[in-house]
Amino acid sequence: METRRGTKRGSGVRNFKSGLSLWLILWLVVVKPGGVSPCPRLCVCYPTPMTVSCQSQNLTMVPAGVPYDSQRVFLQNNRITELRADSFGFETQVLWLYGNNITWIEAGAFSNLRILEELDLGDNPSLRHLEGGAFRGLEKLQSLHMHRCKLATLPHDIFHKLYSLQFLYLQENQLHFLQDDLFSDLVNLTHLFLHGNRIRALSENVFRGLVNLDRLLLHENRIKQVNRRAFRDLGRLTILYLFNNSLAELPGQAMRDVQDIQFLRLNSNPWSCGCEARPLWEWFRKARISSSEVVCTSPTQRRGQDLRFLRELDFAPCPLPDPGSLTGSTTTTFSTKTRWWFSKHKPASSSKSSFQKTSDNAKTFPFPVGKPQYGPKLAPDTLPVKYELSEAEAALPKLDPEEYWANYGNEDSSIRCFELECPPNYDGAAFPSSSSFSITPSTLRLLAASIAAFSLQLLLS
């Protein structure tokens, strides 16, 4: 009896264990725990947040099997060459593709990534061209990296509808031209990095729409010209870097449009500190900012000086800025102090009393007393030694006599020159002074008669 009972008990235990094992296998296969997703081959996956890391695996294409609900996908430092519309069968918030061999991005390649916030395509030196619509559908994208890709051009609609973009990295490419309205949809952009390119000019509408831009980095380009309205939408800009360019001039109006600027870097440019620099100099007088030095390279007499610290007298001979000029150039309407521009260059030994008038001297002064006599224009090399034109002054727009005298008399004649700096014949008809009246005998007789008549009238009254 005992033997028979033990045999039944052992058989029941074995049946129970086998049934339990089968149940566990079925549970693991059919009812596996939630939250466990497969991971692509050669990748490492981490939960919370779901991260798929496949960097540095010599991948030539985006791997299949990336969990659909991934939040971060790292594919950097591989050998991926193309991105197509069917390359991404998942959603993610962060996608890193830098350091690959990407040569082509199909239009709409990222259209499935509707929740993507950060896309890094930097350091793809073979990505020299982008199709329009390459970033279509990325309306939640906040950060886009395309640095060091050797991009030469950008399609006009490349940033179309990227309304959420805040950071755009385009530095160290080969961009030589920026189209008008290229950034017009980027109304929330705060950081724009364009340094290390080959940009030559900034047009009127190049930054239109960037109403929230905080910092603009344009250093180490080849910029020679800035339109006076190029910064008109950048009212919130606080940081502007323009150093290491080819700028000789920067319109004062362009700087007045960036009223919130705090940090300005203009060093390492070939600044010309002739008349064309006056608008920028005047802006510096009112601005309260942190600025780099602005070292003059021309004219010769100002080489090495800092434009910010020049005196008003240094700009006395300058024409006024032309409000209609888009580049900040000058017109032929002269300021009042222009009449005495030559007084700074007059030899120290000469004065009003010791100056000897000659025919050569008369040619030096463009403001003869009385009716002007129009003669042939003098070339700079024919001027007398009393004044030598600098390179910057010789390059200024030539002034026709009729143009000057058409504006003559509009200046404020109450401003006088200092005695030792006045030109010869200064006390003429145009600006009479007390020394131009002489006392003659007839004048004395007339004065005596007037006094006598006045005295007689007082006695009779």
TrEMBL record:
SUPFAM superfamilies: L domain-like. Pfam families: LRR_8. Belongs to the Nogo receptor family. Residues 269-319 form the LRRCT domain. The keyword Cell wall biogenesis/degradation does not apply. This is Reticulon-4 receptor-like 2. The lineage of its organism: Eukaryota, Metazoa, Chordata, Craniata, Vertebrata. Keywords: Cell membrane, Cell projection, Glycoprotein, Leucine-rich repeat, Lipoprotein, Membrane, Receptor, Repeat, Signal. It is a lipid-anchor. It is found in: Cell membrane; Cell projection; Membrane raft; Membrane. GO terms for cellular component: cell projection; membrane raft; perikaryon; plasma membrane. Residues 38-72 form the LRRNT domain. It comes from Austrofundulus limnaeus. Residues 1-38 form the signal peptide.
